[in-house]
Amino acid sequence: MTDTHALYRTTLTLKKPMTTEAKRIPVPTPTATPVPPKPAKPKNPHALQQALLWQCKGQKVRVWLMTGQELVGILAGFDTYAIALETEHKNYLLFKHGMVGIEMERQ
Side by side, which strands form the sheet with 60-65? Predict the structure, then answer.
């Protein structure tokens, strides 16, 4: 078994002594690289949803939820995050992130 303190002392003595002279290391100058332009954001990222929902508003729709449940009712309204659905017995506020799909009934 080796003595830990003796090993520590030998590693301290093997180190080079510090010098007072500072070495000058050349620093690379930054080059002006062109930054690629960011892709243009769509003016309304929900335009596809809104177009379909405006067409379905006041119509009978079928909504599938992530739980596997299917609801049929009249689309009363919508916003960015939710839709309001009126059925024969209840009114529902359904969040869009919990829906799988929506289908407009044909007339």
Answer: 91-95, 82-86, 70-78, 60-65, 99-104
In a domain? residue 4: no
Q: Does 24 fall in a domain?
A: no
CB 71 within 8 A of CB 61: no
**Confidence band of 44 (pLDDT split at 50, 70, 90):** confident
- CATH code of the domain covering residue 99: 2.30.30.100
CA distance 49 to 81: 11
- Residue 73: φ, ψ to 5°: -175, -170
Q: Mean pLDDT in the chain?
A: 80
The conformation of residue 58, written as its DSSP 8-state character, comes to T
Residue 42 covered by a domain? no
